[in-house]
Specification:
elongated; homodimer; 12 helices; Peripla_BP_I (chains A, B); 434 Repressor (Amino-terminal Domain); alpha/beta; Lambda_DNA-bd_dom_sf (chains A, B); about 350 residues; Rossmann fold; DNA-binding; 6-stranded parallel sheet; 4-stranded parallel sheet
Chain lengths: ~350, ~350
DNA sequence: GGTTACAAGGAAAGCCCTTTCCTCGCCTCT
DNA sequence: AGAGGCGAGGAAAGGGCTTTCCTTGTAACC
């Protein structure tokens, strides 16, 4: 690779001059030199070494984001919002997939710190695991102590700014709809227990149940992987345990889609035989049959807010922003047959 | 941020020793010093500056990938394969979304070069635009001239290794199924004309048509954005122009899903009234109603191959690997009503 | 006892830039 | 004519790390 020095030599000027021209510094440089340098840059196909620049300059310009998996639509949407703001602000973003592995998450925080990122965004559910939370917080605090910015989405107990999707409230709202429609035998297709997202949403559901003088017994909650196949498995288990189920609440849309597929296989029609609702309102939710009634979280905006928070001027006290959830009514919810 | 020198000072040793311990160099260091250093590292929460390391070391360890949009399932899958191989090989990957903007693509090549990446992977359709192709090639060649590795997926005319999805062949195969089933009025929901993916797939369709002594007149091809809404718009246009259509071939699954939604709105049932087929076999294809008959491209593997090619030992002559397409039979294809 | 050999740790050069501080030459003003 | 000012360009000091080459101290050998 051609270096600054190569260009300088070729143009017969000092490195300082080349640097000034290449970076458009305010310092005035004569037209003649400028031309010679630019020509040399062209001829050598010179591109400045970003790492050397970073070392020499003081300000950082990269932000890191840790998600469970970008190819999961939930995170894809968040990342999209994030990217938009990032490029508006001239920042490069490094995306890291933790695949819901706490250790990997820890490693990535370290890696991003090593990369000297300006901010770290953590998206995705937290874990009920005090040990892990503690060590993550320790790493995050160390990073923040040296001027790093941290912003998390949907995690209660972490250092840094936070944007909190209304998981509890959203679940409460959709739960109300279910109970208001008269469902008595309702099953919950849930994500793994140790995810805070699971417990938050479950809490909302329970609040709705209480309001309608119902309960959500443990046997009507089936925990599984937080994806389509997990949803299918949990639905099958629920149905096997109690064939009278008239409604299934899935804790996200992917799981709801898995539920739909099992129901179809078993010849049960939705919503006539069984109501199914999801959570998140991912784009595909309107295109499955029947279109999913679900809870919308403004994911793109959540991502955008998270990075904006991190990038905004250094405020000492962590801020938390709540974002609302709304129920999207489509076709997969109906009253039970025997009303 | 604590630096190497800080650690050295605190442990009362030289920077060289700290470096050797932190990086596990083969050089032997006494147990006592090692302990002192490790303790200092702990206390200072020291993390080596990755940029300084990169500058000081010779070997690179990051690869860059340019896709149209990671949140598009097509690229999400490719990226997943890519990421897998990358972490197996201890590489960090930087993902760049070009949003199908040629200029941005050019910029990103530059940016990745500046980041000193070991390899650049370009995924996603090429453009029929000689000027752009030429300048992209120039940049790529400059990069390769200095030891950079390039690998592209599905682009004919670019420097570097390539993995070529069988776009023409896949389209030919699905085309044959359509014509063999007896469809005579078939419309094509196509992506923008200037994408090579469009022309390749169209070519395959034409070959199939020829074999069945049919043609694909221009008025039966509607070009639109390469996504769900584009598919919906194109389908509507096609239907308006010729209500007798009995089959719609969409050039990818997203567009097919858009087609499905328009058909549903208009009260046409699939596949009884109209057959719909897609392309790519993205995960959701099996979950829409009716499940999509489509062409499968092994996307995860394509991503994995692309990065493997780039990372393998420096072979001078570019290699190209073809990957096969297969038709996945589901429920959205049937013979036309009037035999 | 003197030489050699080796092991353990340190000094310093180098990686590629940015930026501060200088220098030099010329113009302007009195 | 001399002082002062200013404008254009360069020298050099970092920035944080790796790694080569040295130095020093000790063990081993004849």
């Amino acid at each position: 690779m051609a270096t600054l020095a190569d260009v300088a030599r070729r143009a017969g000027v000092s490195a300082a001059t080349v640097s000034r021209i290449v970076n458009g510094s305010p310092k005035i440089v004569s037209e003649e030199l400028r031309e010679r340098v630019l020509r040399a840059v062209q001829e050598l196909q010179y591109v400045p070494n970003a790492h050397a620049q970073l070392l020499a300059r003081s300000h950082r310009t990269t932000v890191g984001v840790i998600v469970h998996d970008v190819s999961d639509p939930y995170f894809a949407e968040i990342t999209r919002g994030l990217q938009r703001v990032a490029s508006e602000q001239g920042r490069l973003v490094i995306i890291c997939n933790s695949y819901r592995d706490p250790d990997r998450e820890l490693e990535y925080v370290e890696l991003l710190r090593a990369q000297q990122v300006e901010a770290i965004i953590l998206a995705g559910s937290g874990y009920h695991d005090p040990g892990f939370t503690k060590s993550l917080n320790a790493k995050l605090s160390a990073y923040m102590a040296t001027g790093g910015r941290v912003s998390v989405v949907g995690r209660h107990k972490l250092a840094g700014d936070a944007v909190m999707p209304a998981n509890e409230e959203g679940a409460y709202l959709i739960g109300r709809e279910i109970f208001a429609a008269g469902h008595r035998h309702v099953g919950v297709v849930a994500a793994p227990k140790q995810l805070t997202t699971t417990t938050d949403r479950l809490a909302g559901l329970r609040r709705a149940a209480r309001e309608y003088r119902r309960t959500l017994p443990a046997r009507r909650i089936e925990y599984a992987e937080f994806d389509r196949d997990g949803g299918a498995a949990a639905t099958a288990a629920l149905l096997d345990a109690d064939p009278r189920l008239t409604a299934i609440i899935a804790l996200n849309d992917s799981m709801a889609i898995g539920a739909l597929s099992v129901l179809r296989e078993r010849g049960l029609s939705v919503p006539e035989d069984v109501t199914v609702v999801g959570f998140d309102d991912m784009p595909i939710a309107r295109d499955v049959t029947p279109a999913l009634t679900t809870v919308r979280l403004p994911l793109v905006e959540i991502g955008a807010r998270a990075i904006a928070l991190a990038l905004e001027s250094q405020q000492p006290n962590p801020r938390v922003e709540e974002v609302e959830a709304t129920v999207i009514h489509r076709e997969s919810l109906a009253p039970p047959r025997t009303g």
